[in-house]
Amino acid sequence: MTPSPSSAPTISARTAGVRGSAIRDLLTLTARPDVISLAGGLPAADLLPRERIARAAAEALTDPGAVQYGETAGLARLREVVAAHETGRGTGGARGPVRAADVVVTSGSQQALDLLARAVLDPGDAVVIEDPGYVGALQVFQAAGARVVPVGLDEHGMRVDELADRLAAGLRPRLVHTVSSFHNPRGVTLAAERRRALAELAERHGFLVVEDDPYGLLSFDGPPPEPVAAHGERVVRLGSASKVLAPALRVGWLVGPPEIAAAVELLRQGADLCGSTLTQAIAADLLADHDWFAGHLDTLRRAGAARAAAFTGAVAELLPGATWSRPTGGMFCWLELPAGTDTTAALPRALEAGVGFVPGSAFAVGGALPSAARCCFASHPPEVLREAARRLATVLAVPSGR
Ligand code: PMP
């Protein structure tokens, strides 16, 4: 008798190699109403501009095109607004203004990352990623069959000197991914001289930098950092409306060299045809309303700064022995607890005590990070953050005399 083909479904070796996101799994647990969640990277619900979005939606819906399929590369008006906005940030550098043709709108910047990886990488290609790193990037690069090479971070962002050493020793990456400003999960920002050095290394060694920058506009202390893309042509910039308008719009974008933008657009045809015309029209309206957007950003920055200060102040008081980099923007505070603390083991007890965080090991690319925790301070007002720190202290505080 001929053996019947196995009916067991099979998945590709590449897919089998993708690590699940502990964070997305955690979101279910931390959604319990009795838990103050510092786990998800969620923008503050109380600061999302729902009324302004509703007005923009009503206005957009007067045009029948708002509920129609749209162009794969994105709504022309949004591409223009994003191009102007990126030009204002300095993305074009000495090359001059960013053109609408250089912009591809995507379903969140996560889709840009996925399509970019598929457009550029062949299985086995080396990709550099920061360690600890953005889990969504790690997943994308694993799914593309890349060989992921971790490079460390310090107070000033990616250790570009470590990358230079690896390159000198023969490493030939196709992509180097960096969350350049207010890093997820470390909270730190790539120093200006490292930005220049990274762009120069890209020119010299022929790799592309992926500047993943959803948080740059949320700067507490001054203007947003100058993009890495200002310093060279071999930089693909990813931007997002998620942290400054609303994640539910699912609007992000890629700005890059024409052949990269064209390849990403081509792959998007097969991925989802086009984005939501309606939410793109809303995003274009809000981003083009300069006075409103500037005021809204100001509100987000002030609230973020007050929340970060409240959280770190309470941690300083209640968790002696913990250290962190002072957040200067963005949404995350990376707590390092004394050696010997196991934040993964502590998490179930923390949830019992009514507080959630993401253990550092969830972001580890190379080694383990057992005594670290990522805490998102953006989602709650100061008094709730103080209560969260109090609850954290009940499970993470080092007993005196230890
Ligand atoms: N990049 C980084 C570094 C992020 O933290 C996130 C969201 N957590 C994204 C990209 C994706 O965001 P979105 O798809 O909502 O634009």
TrEMBL record:
What are this entry's molecular-function GO terms? transaminase activity
Q: Which cofactor does it need?
A: pyridoxal 5'-phosphate
Q: Where is the Aminotransferase class I/classII large domain?
A: 34-392
User: Is Phosphoprotein found in the keyword set?
Assistant: no
InterPro entries found in the cross-reference section: Aminotransferase_I/II_large, Class-I_PLP-dep_aminotransf, PyrdxlP-dep_Trfase, PyrdxlP-dep_Trfase_major, PyrdxlP-dep_Trfase_small
Q: Which UniProt keywords apply?
A: Aminotransferase, Pyridoxal phosphate, Transferase
What Gene3D superfamilies does UniProt report for this protein, alphabetically? Aspartate Aminotransferase, domain 1, Type I PLP-dependent aspartate aminotransferase-like (Major domain)
Name of this protein: PLP-dependent aminotransferase family protein
Its ancestry begins with:
Bacteria, Bacillati, Actinomycetota, Actinomycetes, Pseudonocardiales
